[in-house]
């Protein structure tokens, strides 16, 4: 049996099955911290949409505008042109 007092039990540089345990732990902890930050940001965004709604803005339209602003302007223009053509074709 391996005695806990034996040399080579330094867990700061422990390698188990070819995996550096500290490196793995560090990666996992970083991802966990970022996921917590993402939850906090999502809550903040939800609060902003609640504020917008209480101010009388249409949240669905705001979300649509945000989605459009993320897109390439040329792609947006093409999409709007096609939408206009389709509407005219349908008599709208």
Summarize the structure.
The chain is mainly alpha-helical and 92 residues long. It has three helices and two strands; from the N terminus they run E-E-H-H-H.
Name its key features:
mainly alpha, 92 residues, DUF2312 domain-containing protein, two-stranded antiparallel ribbon, WH-like_DNA-bd_sf
Explain the overall architecture:
- There is one protein chain.
- This protein is 68% helix and 4% strand.
- With 92 residues, the protein is mainly α.
- The chain has 2 domains: 13-56; 58-92.
- Residues 1-8 have low confidence and may be disordered.
Could you give the topology of this structure?
Elements: E1 15-16, E2 19-20, H1 21-54, H2 59-70, H3 73-89
Antiparallel strand pairs: 1-2
Radius of gyration: 27 Å
- How widely separated are the two ends? 81 Å
Biggest beta sheet summary? 2 strands, antiparallel
| Count of DSSP H/I helices | 3
Count every beta strand, where a strand is a DSSP E run of 2 or more residues: 2
Overall pLDDT confidence? 89
Low-confidence stretches: 1-8
SSE string, helix = H, strand = E?
Answer: EEHHH
Helix content: 55-70%
Taken as a percent bin, the fraction of beta residues is under 5%
Morphology: elongated
Domain GapR-like DNA-binding: 20-91
GO molecular function: DNA binding
Keywords: Coiled coil
Protein name: DUF2312 domain-containing protein
